Structures
1.
Amino acid sequence: MAVCIAVIAKENYPLYIRSVPTENELKFHYTVHTSLDVVDEKISAMGKALVDQRELYLGLLYPTEDYKVYGYVTNSKVKFVMVVDSSNTALRDNEIRSMFRKLHNSYTDIMCNPFYNPGDRIHSRAFDTMVNSMMMQVC
Amino acid sequence: MSRQGGRGTESKKMYWYLPFISPSASLQLMNSELFTLTYGALVTQLCKDYENDDDVNKQLDKMGYNIGVRLIEDFLARSNVGRCHDFRETADVIAKIAFKMYLGITPSITNWSPGGDEFSLILENNPLVDFVELPDNHSTLIYSNLLCGVLRGALEMVQMAVDVKFVQDTLKGDSVTEIRMKFIRRIEDNLPAGEE
Amino acid sequence: MTIHNLYIFERGGRCLFYSEWHRRRGPGIPQEEEFKLMFGMLFSLRSFVAKMSPTDMRDGFVAFHTSKYRLHYLETPSGLRLVLNTDLGVPSAREALQHIYGNLFVELVVKNPLCPPRAPVQSLLFRQRLDAFVRSLPYFGPRNPQN
C-alpha cells in the first residue's frame, strides 16, 4: 500500500498528488520533488544506451529512513512516483510493478476522455477511486 | 519485462463491409476506439464553439438528423428489410438490426406505453461514451444527442414522425442509458399539384 | 435484348435522375411532362395493385410488360422509386435495380455529404459508374432492329 502517489508531467510539474491525509503532506511533496532529479538521471542514463526494449519501470529511486520511493516513466515522459512505507516489507517488486501498470492504464483512460486537456490537473473520479484503492487504509 | 497495453483485450472491432463495387472489394475493419475518440473530439469542439450546453445539444441533434436521413438508405440497401407494419416491428428492427449493424450493440426494448406508441431502448454500454467523464461545468450536456437526431432523421424518411430523447445516461450517474422513443404521427405522401 | 432507359424518382414525384441507352423514339412531349406522366402512372398502378390484390402483398407492383417493352420497378421504404425499361427478353431486372440502389446510389449519392438529400443527382461519378454497370449487364446488347 502506498503512502503517496504522484503523477508528474513531462515539464516536471505535478498533475496529481495524493497522500495519506494524516501525515505531513508537505513532506511528501518535497520527497516527490527531490526524487524527480533521480528520475531524470535514470532517464538520461537509459537514453544513451538506446535499448530496443525501453524499461518503463525505474525501480527503487532512493530509500530514506522511513520510506522508499519508486519511479515509473511512460514513453511520453510522464512520470509516476510512488512513496511506500519502509516498514511494509511485504511489498515485493512485482506488486509495485503491477501497481504502476494499473496507474498507467488509468492514466491512458483519462487521456482518452475528450474533456481532458493534456497538461491539466487530473480531476477524474475514476482515477481517484483507483488511487484510493492503492493507498494505505488509515483509519 | 515488456509491457503490454493492457486495454488491448477490451477494444472492440467494428466490421464495416464494403459492398461489391469491384470484385476486389474487401472487408474493412476499424477500431472502435478511433470512432469514440473522433466523436469525443467533435463534442468538445462544439462545446468550445458554442459555450452553451443547450446550443451544443441542438447542434448534435441537427447533425444527427443529417446523418439519419442518409443512413436510412444505406440501412435499407444493406439489410433488405421491408416496410414495418407497426411501431413494435419498427422497434425490433431498430434495436436488433440497426444498432447491431452500426454500433455493434443490441439494446433491449422495454417500458411500452399502454397505447403502444412509446417505448424505451436500454443500452448497457454505449460505445460513444467509453472513457468519457463529464466535467461539472457541463452537467446539462446530452453527450450522445447525436443518436437522437439520427433516429429521428432516419424514421422521418420512412414516414414516421417520432420524438426521441434520453431519460437516463451513464455519464450522469445512472446505471444504464435509456432512450425514450415516442411515435407522434405518420407522415403522409404529399403528391405534387396536378396529380390525382 | 437491351436496356432502354432508367428513371429515379423520389417520394414527392420529382425525378432525380434519368439516363437512356437505346431509346428509339421519344414520347413527343417535353421531358418534364414525361416524368410527371411516368410518376403519375406508377402511383396509380401501385395503389391499384394494392387494392386489387387477392392476398396480403409483400412487394406490390414489380413489373409490367407490353408487346414492345417491359418496365421493371423497385421501391424502397424510404420512398425512392427506380424504374428500368428493357425489352421483352429480360425476365426480371430486380437484382440489377437492387444493385443500382444499394451499391451505386447509396454509396455514391446518399453518402456524399455535398449532395443534398432528395435533390436531382448531379454526380458525374454516379453517371459513369451506372453507365459502366448497365453496359456490363448480360442482357445489354446492341438494339434489336425489330424492337
2.
Amino acid sequence: MDYRLDFAVVWRSFDLLLSGLGLGLALAVVSIFIGSFIGLIAAFAMLSKNKLWRGIAVMYVTAIRNTPILVLIFFTFFALPQFGLRLGKIESFVFTLTLYSGAYLTEVFRGGLIALPTGLREAGLAIGLTEWGTKKNLLIPVMIRNVLPALSNNFISLFKDTSLAAAIAVPELTFYARQINVNSFRVIESWTVASLMYVFACYFIAAGLRLLERKLAIP
Amino acid sequence: MDLSLFLHEMWNARGAIWDGFQMTVSISALAIFCGTILGVFVGLALVYAWLPVRLIVRGYVDFIRGTPVFVLVLASYYILSGIGIQLTAFQAGVLAITAFCSTHVGEMIRGALAAIHRGQVEAAMAIGLTFRQTFQYVLMPQALRQILPTWVNAATEMVKASTLLSVIGVAELLLVTQQIISRNFLSLEFYFLAGFIYFVIDFSIERLGRFVEKKVAYS
Amino acid sequence: MADPLLVIENVHKKFGELDVLSGVDLIVDRSDVVSIIGSSGSGKTTLLRCINLLEDFHEGRILIDGEPIGYMLKNGKRQRLPKSLIAQHRALTGMVFQTFNLFPHLTALKNVTLGLLKVRNLKKEEATEIARHWLDLVGVLDRQDHYPGQLSGGQQQRVAIARAIAMNPKLMLFDEVTSALDPELVNEVLNVIKDLVSDGMTMLLVTHEMRFAYDVSTKVIFMNEGRIAEQGPPSELFNNPQSTRLAEFIQNSTF
C-alpha cells in the first residue's frame, strides 16, 4: 500500500466542485419550494372528508415513501419519455425530487395541522373569515411555524439526496468528485473533499435554518 | 402497454429478478444487523464515554450523517480499492450502508437515553442498583422500546439505500432491473415491478415493526 | 317597540343520538344582557355556538334582525347556506371563547385588525385606528405589539374581546370567558364586560359567575337538559326559583 496524498488536482478543480455544490443547493431549493405546495394540498386532502381526495393523497404518499428515490429518478428519466414526456436531465431530476419531497412534506404538514388547537379555526370563523381565509391567514401560517424544525431537516436530507442526480449525469458535486476520481485516481482526496463539502454545507444550512426558525418562532 | 409481452418477459427474467431480490435482502439485512450493533455502541459512547472518545465518535457521526449515502457508497468503493484494500463491490457497499445505519441508530439511542426521566436513574440507585444494573434493567429496556418505531423506519431506509449499490455494479434488484430493461426495453413495466417489490419489502418491514411494537408495548 | 334583535325558534341539535338542544325558544331585545346558567351538559355553550353557526342545528330557526341565519328553505327543504354567506352571518355576532383562541402568530394589534382587513376589507390605517380604539377601551393598548404568548390570561381575554367587538357585531356572545382564568384575573375581564353593558351592547353570556350575572343581566336563563327551564329578571330567578332543579342549582353555586 503506497499512496501519497496530493490535493493539487482537487484544488485545481475546486471551482467545479463548488459549482456542483451550488447546483445541488439550487435543485433542493426549487424542489422543496414546489414540493411544499404539493405537500400542503395533499395534507389538506388527507384530512378532508372526501374519500376520493383522501384516497389519492394516501396513495401518493404511500407509494413515494416506500419506493427508493433512485428507482423514482430512473423511472422519470428513462421510462417517462416513452409517454412522450421527454425532460432534460435537470428538469427530470427536479420533477422527481419535487414529487418526492411533496410526499414527505405531506406527512409533516398533516401532523402540524392535526396538532393545531381547534379553537384557532373557530376563532377565525367567528370573526367572519371564510374556511379558505381561515386556512390562508391562520392555519397555514401557524402550522408552518410550528413545523419549521421538521421542514429544516427535510431540506437538509433533500440537499443530500441531490447527490443522486449524479446517477443521471447531472453535473453536481458528486458527479464532479467522481469525474476527478476517475480522471486522476486521486481517490482519497476527491472523496474526502467532496464529503467535507457536503458536511460543511449541511452544517451551515442547519445553522442558518435554526437562526431562521428562531426569528420566525412565535413568542 | 402490452401485458402478455410483459408477463412473458417477466417469466423469462424470473431467475434474475429472484437473484436481485436476494441480493437486495442480503445487503439490507447485513447492513441493518451490523449497523444496529455498531450503532448501540455509538449511542452509548455518545452518552457515557470518556470525553475524548465521545468527541471522536461525535465527529464520526456528524461526518457520516453530513455526507450523502451515495457519496459514502462511492467513496467506500473507490477509496478502499484505490489504496489497495481488496474488497468486493458488495463488501464496500455494505460497509458504507452499515456506517450510515450505525450513526442513525447511535443518534436514536442517545436521544432515547437522554429522554428517559432523571428520576428513573435516581429511583434505580435508591433501591441499590449499580450503574450497570441500572443500565441493563432500567435504561436500556426503555430506550430500546422507545426507538423501535424510528428503528423500523431506519430499516426501511437501509433497504432503499441498498439501491445505491447498483451504481458500483452490485447486481441487486435495481441493477438487475436495468439489465433486463436494456435487453427488452420495457422500462416502464420493469421499473414499476422493481418499485413494487421494494414497496412490498418496506411495507412488510413496517407491518412487522408495528406487530413487534404492540407485543412489547406496556399493556 | 322595535323588533327584537335575536329570535330563536324551536332549535334542536343532536350529537349523534344525543339531544343536546331539544326545542329552545328565546327572544333577545336590543341592549338586553342575557345570562345563561345551568349545569354542564345542559346545552348552554352549544346554544351559543349555534347562534355563531359554529355548530349545525337540525331544526328550528335563528333570526338576527328578522333575518334567518345559516339556513334557507329550498323547495321546502332546509339547506345550509353557502360558506360565504355563513361567514357573513357569523360576522353579525361576536364570539369570545373560554380559551381565548387568540392567533398565536399575530401581535395583539394584528389579532384585532385581521378581521377588519380580511372580512370588512378596511384600509390598513382605518383598521389600525379601530383596533387601537378598542384595545384602549379594554385597557391593553400598551401591549399592542405583544404576542399572545407574552400576555397574561386576563390580557389575552381582553384582546379577544376587543377582537370580537371591533368587528362591530350586533350581538356579543361570551362563552364562559372567565373559566380558564386565575381567580385574581377574573375581575379585569368582568369589568370590561360591564363597560360594554353600560354602552348598551346586546349580549348573551354563558357564565358561572352568579354574582356577576345577578348584577349585570336584564334577563337570566336557566337551561336544563337542552331546554330553557326558567327565565326572568335576575332578582326573580335567583330569589324565587320555581323549580327544584333551579333552586338546587342556585344553592350549589357560589356567589
3.
Amino acid sequence: MEKFITHVGTGVPLRRSNVDTDQIIPAVYLKRVTRSGFEDGLFAAWRNDPEFVLNQPQFKSATVLVAGADFGTGSSREHAVWALQNYGFKVVISSRFADIFRGNSLKGGLLTIILDQAEVEAMWEAIEADPATPITVNLEERTVSYGSKSLPFAIDDYTRWRLMEGLDDIGLTLKQTDFIDSFEKKRPAYKPATLPIRS
Amino acid sequence: MGKTLAEKIWAEHVVRQADGEPDLIYIDLHLIHEVTSPQAFDGLRLAGRPVRRPDLTIATEDHNVPTMNIDKPIADPVSKLQVDTLRANCAEFGVRIHSLGDKDQGVVHVVGPQLGITQPGMTIVCGDSHTSTHGAFGALAFGIGTSEVEHVLATQTLPLQRPKTMAINVEGSLKPGVTSKDIILAIIAKIGTGGGQGYVIEYRGSAIRALSMESRMTVCNMSIEAGARAGLIAPDQTTFDYIKGKPHAPEDFDAAVAYWKTLFTDSDAKFDVEVDLNADDLEPFVTWGTNPGQGLPLNAVVPNPADFADSEQRTAAERALVYMGLEAGTPLKKIAIDTVFLGSCTNGRIEDLRAAADILKGKKIASSLRMLVVPGSARVRLEAEAEGLDKVFLDAGAEWRNAGCSMCLGMNPDQLAVGERSASTSNRNFEGRQGKGGRTHLVSPLVAAATALRGTLSSPADL
C-alpha cells in the first residue's frame, strides 16, 4: 500500500446525502475478479446525465470528493473503494460515513475524513466558486486546508500510523501468531466446524 | 457493572489487547461467496499464504447465479468466470463449497443457519453486509470488505474497534397481518439509515421474544439498513429448539445449551443508547423512497417533501419522489405494481414462503403483474416442494425459481426494467438496486402476496 502523508488536489462537490454503495458502483459492475478497472462503474447511473458533477469539465481532474452525509451506506462491497481509487480519488470528505465503507477505505488507503456538515457546505461553496481551489490534506497534522481555512479532523493514532507507513493489516497481525495459537488452544470443543461435512 | 450480550461475546473473542491499538478478535465462522472473495484469494496466492482454518470457512454461490436453467452453463461469461474462480479457489485452498445444483447451495445467510453452523455466542463474518442476519442466534455477526476477507482467511482474526451498544426495546404484541419485517422497517424509519452507525444493536422486549427464529433473522438482517454493522437477539428456548437436529448441531447438545444460557445482557449492564418501540401500534410498513428509512404505514399517503423540517431530508425526499415517479399525497395503496419479488436473505426462508402461499392459495395474481418466488436456498426449495407450496405459487400464476440472491440486487438476469415498479421482500430500495431505473417498494411477504393479488400495494386485510 502506498504511504499517505499529505495530498494536494482539487475537489468535486457531490451535493447528495445517503450515497449508498449501489450508487457508487452498481452490482452489475462487480463481476471482475481483479482489483482494477472499476472506474467505469463509478456512479454509473448518474454519469449518464451530462449535468452530473463528475461530467463537468472543471471537475475532471479532482482528487478530493466532498459528499453529503451518510456516504457509503448499504452493501459491504469494497469495489466501491476500488472504483473511487481507480477513478483517481485519494480523499473523500463527508459529515458521516457508513461504518463498513469507512473501514474498507482506511484499509485500502483511501482517506475518509469527517467534517461538520456546515464545513462540508462551506467547502462545496468554495469549490463551486473556484473549482481550481487547491485542497491540502495533511494526515501527519490531521488537517484539511483550502483558501484561508485550516480544519482539524479526527483519526485514531493507530490507523494514522498505518496509513502513513503504508502498512497492510495482515502482515501486522501475522506478527501476533503466537497470540492466535494460544487462543486456539483454549477454544471450547463445542464450537462448530464446517469440516468434516455432516449432513 | 454487568455486561451487555455483545460485550460478553466480544470479551470471549479477544486474542490480543494493546493500548492504542484495535482489539484482535477471533472469528469462529467465515462465510464466503463469489463476489467479494476473488481478490482476497488472489492476495493470499501473491503472498504465499494458506487459509489458516478451512474448517471454520464455508463457501456458497449466490449473488450472481441464475435462478432458471441451472443445469446449463451460466450464460453471462463474466458471472461464469466469477463462479468458476470461486470453485477453483475453494479447491486450491481446501474450503468447503456448496455449488449450484447442490442441496445446500443458496443465499449464504440462509445456508449457515439451516446447516446448524450458526450458533449462539459465535463471531461470524462474511463479505456481505447482511451477515447481521446471524445475530438472531445471539451471535456477533457482521459484514466485512474484501481486504478483511483476506485478513480472516490468512489469520482467522480481525483487528476491530470496539463498537458502542444500543438496545431497541420492542414491547407489546403484533396485530394479525403485521410481521417482523414491519418491526424492522418501522425501526429504520424511526432512527434513520445512520441511526445505528458505530453501534451493535440488541433487539429486546416481549415482541421480539415472541418471534420465531426465522422472523428474528428478518429483524437482524436489516440492522445494516439502520447503519448498524451488527444486530443481535439473546438466545432462548426458541433458538435452542431451532438448532437441535440440524446437521452441525453440537454433538454434546446439553453442554452447548449450558453455555448458551449464559448469553444474555446482565440486569445491571448499561447500553450507550436505548430506543423504545410499541409493537401494539404497528401497521404493515412499506417504503416510498430510495433509502430504507423512507418508509410509512401502508395506510399513509406519499409524503410531501415540504413537510420535512430537516433540509437534508427534504432534498432527499424531493429526489426520491422524482426517481420513484410518485406524487405527494397519493395513497400508498393506490400505487400499481409491475413485479412482486418474494425471496432474499431477508424473507426467502420457508416460513416466508408458507405465509405468502397461505394468502395465494386457490387465487390468481393480478394479470397486470408478474411474481417471482425465489427460495433462499435449495433446501428451502425442496422443503417447499414437499409441502406443495410450489404448486400454490404456480397455480396462482407466479414463477417458481431456483435459489439465489436474484432480484434483491439484480446481479443475475433477474432485474427490473427502466421505470418498472416492484413490491419486494428484500432489504434495499436504493436507486437502480433491482435493475437500472427500477423502482422498489420494500414490503413483508404478507404484503407482497396481497399486492400480487390486487395489483396495487395492499395488506391481507384488503382482500
